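Feature request, filed as a ticket because there's no other form

It would be nice if the structure record came with a short human-readable summary line next to the tokens. Right now we just get the raw output. Example of a typical job, pasted below so the devs can see what we mean:
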Amino acid sequence: MSDLERNKQVVVDYYETAFGGDPEKAIADHFGPRYVQHNPDAEDGPEAFTGFVRWLRGEYPRLRLDIKRVLAEGDMVVTHSHLILEPGKPGRALADFFRLEDGKVVEHWDVIQEVPEASANPNGMF
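Raw output as currently delivered:
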């Protein structure tokens, strides 16, 4: 398996494990020696990440993350996902960028957009 494919698997497992309700396992399995966060509303480090996931799942206990695409280049992995906070509601479109070192997640950027009820085109966001 190539490093790119391995990095993609690491990110998918990390993301699905964390948002599936076990951020501590995601961190133990996939975080590097540091975690740099570029979302201005989030702090650096594993504790902040765990706190965010626990808070989000507390607010939306039936949330579901559906990863639609995974791309990799060099040390970067990008996911395009649909975060459904409540069943039957449109949710959010996510573009997440993860940088890895030695097969571990060390840095994160994200772009988040609410999924609208109606669209000006028939193409969908996913």
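Something like this underneath would help us a lot:
Helices lie at 3-19, 23-30, 46-59.
The chain has one domain: 3-114.
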